[in-house]
Design brief:
Elements: H1 15-34, H2 48-60, H3 65-75, H4 84-96
Helix pairs in contact: 1-2, 2-3, 2-4
Length: 98
């Protein structure tokens, strides 16, 4: 299977910059998923940063920010969104959505 529009985050880049870039990628992935296209979200470990982007996609889909980490853990991986910084970033992302 060939993936279109892959935008990898480089290892060793500034962590905050990675999160911001992944949030943007999450928005693009969300729009593609809403259009019926198959999307893939991934990071090196597949838990923290990936969970953060999936949680942001949940916010875009209307999941309340207070519930979105629990939803991500139920729907994707039980340890998704690993750090307090990732949880803060999800709240920041949600606040930017209006």
């Amino acid at each position: 299977m060939q993936a279109d529009n892959l935008h990898p985050i480089e290892a060793g880049a500034d962590y905050r910059a990675q999160l911001i870039a992944q949030g943007v990628e999450g928005c693009l992935a969300y729009e593609q998923a809403r259009a019926g296209r198959r999307v893939e979200v991934a990071c090196g470990g597949g838990t923290g940063r990936t969970g953060t982007v999936i949680a942001c996609m949940g916010v875009l889909a209307g999941c309340p920010v207070d519930d979105v980490v629990a939803w991500t853990r139920r729907s994707y991986r039980r340890h998704a969104v690993e750090t307090p910084g990732q949880r803060r970033w999800i709240r920041w992302f949600a606040a930017q959505q209006g």
